[in-house]
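Structure first, sequence second, as always.
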């Protein structure tokens, strides 16, 4: 009793844990609709998916909004069947891939195609591709496959097997005539599945019966072998069956070879000794291989045996498909055919097919009644998965909704445009790799010449070279920045981003620029810029070097070693308009020197001179 009590308590605890997890997950999923990070993330996921689709299309973003709305509108219905956003995206991509067209699917088609994929076990793209080859549109594929599913279920045959046979042999519709088209092919596939063969197994026989000469030869051969089915002995009838009713051809052939099957005392079905030789001859004549003919013979014999033992009162008014459905649900056990079923009390019971009542037949027939593929796909979900799906269906709805909004798409488009415009802004000719390389080559050439002159003792010439190099580089960078500013105004003027930047600039104080500085000159305001000043050396400028001259000689370093020092006296002459305020000019010069890096460059150059810069006099 104690063990039973523990088992019961553990079951209660497990149920509580599962219930808690369900509510925790539900709360988390609800939270995704109000958490700004989750919403933004989902908006990004929608844009990524749409971008993946247009990349597959090989087109621009002209129809990206239609793609986004198509994907997001379909999520809820696909989620209810156990799918998700990725499944919706993949259906769109895969179908456009197999069709070789940039088709944007309608939102309501995703659910049907996903359901068809789940019920039949085949990819949605495979279903669409094959039905498209048969002349059906994408949106007709689901409806046509529904007919296949209904036929298979009505006969109690495996839906996935029948669907697979129809899809892979859909080309037979163009070679032969089937009653009711796809529905006729589905019936043939269902009968073939009952016999555990493929409809393609009799394709050679259909071809031989299609033409008059070969049909006459086939009929004569089967007559010699003792065929008893009248349809197989008449060349005209063979041609008619081949061209207009392949389903009946399969049944006629199976009925004819099943007479070579014997049932042993233990219930086993096997081919008679004589039958083996005859069926081999049948295989040669019809083109249907021996193994498939044997399967057809045994399966047909078994079905007929079941049908003969089931009493179908006239009042039941069962169709041929319903009778076959009941026969397919029964299997031999203990010398009689039995069916496992649920009775009126909800209990699992086993009944002999000879004991079935009207209520039993009604219960057995009800599950096989026509249902949509969406209903079948949903019913195939287990309970916990169904509960989980119901919870997950509440997640990310806000993100999906916003992700498909036109205004949001405009924002995303603008953000993408910012990147494009910035690229153009910094693609001005002054900032091209080629032009920068050529400019630096000239500038560094001037600096190098200045260093050489400095080392040779030509102080004035050296500083002149330094000044030219630095000033030239400064002028080039100023020119580049002006081009960047002009291009920036060109790219962003009138755009939402440009309008925002203008608004910010008009409301937030901006630091004064080192240009267009107003100074007073003889009572008149004059605008000065950095480029208005020229820095150059005067004849009296000199470089005094103190210390040894053997600068390239290696020396042992000691605590009392003599050190070389370099002193530079630099006189700078500044020419400016007469009467200009000297204090303001001095401020401009100081700021200009800081920005151009003249002082740093000179310091760096002097350091190189001290190490001889690897040059010779």
């Amino acid at each position: 009793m104690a063990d039973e009590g523990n088992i019961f308590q553990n079951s209660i605890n497990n149920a509580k844990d599962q219930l808690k997890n369900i509510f925790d997950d539900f709360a988390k999923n609800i939270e995704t609709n109000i958490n700004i990070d989750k919403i933004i993330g989902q908006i990004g996921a929608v844009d990524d998916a749409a971008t993946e689709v247009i990349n597959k299309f090989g087109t621009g973003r002209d129809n990206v909004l239609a793609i986004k709305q198509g994907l997001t509108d379909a999520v809820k219905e696909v989620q209810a069947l156990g799918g998700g956003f990725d499944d919706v995206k993949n259906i769109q991509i895969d179908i456009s891939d197999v069709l070789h067209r940039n088709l944007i699917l309608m939102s309501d088609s995703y659910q049907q195609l996903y359901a068809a994929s789940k019920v039949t076990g085949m990819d949605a793209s495979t279903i669409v591709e094959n039905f498209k080859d048969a002349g059906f549109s994408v949106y007709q594929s689901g409806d046509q496959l529904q007919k296949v599913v209904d036929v298979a279920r009505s006969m109690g045959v495996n839906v996935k097997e029948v669907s697979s046979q129809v899809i892979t042999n859909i080309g037979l519709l163009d070679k032969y005539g089937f009653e009711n088209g796809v529905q006729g092919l589905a019936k043939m596939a269902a009968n073939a599945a009952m016999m555990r063969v493929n409809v393609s197994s009799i394709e050679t026989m259909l071809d031989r019966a299609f033409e008059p000469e070969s049909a006459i030869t086939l009929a004569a051969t089967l007559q010699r072998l003792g065929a008893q089915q009248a349809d197989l002995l008449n060349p005209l009838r063979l041609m008619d069956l081949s061209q207009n009713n392949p389903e009946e051809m399969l049944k006629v052939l199976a009925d004819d070879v099943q007479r070579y099957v014997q049932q042993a005392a233990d219930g086993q079905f096997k081919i008679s000794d004589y039958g083996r030789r005859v069926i081999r001859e049948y295989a040669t004549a019809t083109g249907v291989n021996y193994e498939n003919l044997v399967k057809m013979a045994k399966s047909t014999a078994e079905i007929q045996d079941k049908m003969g033992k089931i009493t179908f009162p006239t009042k039941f008014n069962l169709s041929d498909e319903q009778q076959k459905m009941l026969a397919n649900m029964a299997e031999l056990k203990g010398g009689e055919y039995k069916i496992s079923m649920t009775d009126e009390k909800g209990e699992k019971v086993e009944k002999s097919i000879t004991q079935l009542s009207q209520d039993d037949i009604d219960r057995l027939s009800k599950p096989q009644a026509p249902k949509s593929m969406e209903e079948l796909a949903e019913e195939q979900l287990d309970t916990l998965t169904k509960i989980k799906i119901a919870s997950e269906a509440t997640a990310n709805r806000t993100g999906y909704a916003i992700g498909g909004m036109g205004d949001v798409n405009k924002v995303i488009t603008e953000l993408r445009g910012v990147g494009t415009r910035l690229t153009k802004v910094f693609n001005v000719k002054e900032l091209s790799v080629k032009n920068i390389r050529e400019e630096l080559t000239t500038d560094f050439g001037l600096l190098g010449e200045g260093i050489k002159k400095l080392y040779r003792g030509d102080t004035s010439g050296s500083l002149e070279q330094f000044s030219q190099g630095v000033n030239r580089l400064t002028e080039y960078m100023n020119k580049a920045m002006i081009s960047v500013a002009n291009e920036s105004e060109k790219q962003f003027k009138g755009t939402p981003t440009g309008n925002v930047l203008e608004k910010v600039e008009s409301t937030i104080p901006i630091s004064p620029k080192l240009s267009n500085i107003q100074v007073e000159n003889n009572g008149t305001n004059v605008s000065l810029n950095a480029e208005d000043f020229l820095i150059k050396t005067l004849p009296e400028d000199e470089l005094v070097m103190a210390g040894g001259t053997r600068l390239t000689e290696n020396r042992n370093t000691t605590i009392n070693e003599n050190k070389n020092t370099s002193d530079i006296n630099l006189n700078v002459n500044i020419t400016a308009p007469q009467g200009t305020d000297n204090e303001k000019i001095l401020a401009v010069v100081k700021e200009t020197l800081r920005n151009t890096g003249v002082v740093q460059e000179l310091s760096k150059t002097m350091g190189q001179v001290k190490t001889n810069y690897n040059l010779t006099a």
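Margin note: Residues 507-514, 541-570, 609-617 have pLDDT under 50 and may be disordered.
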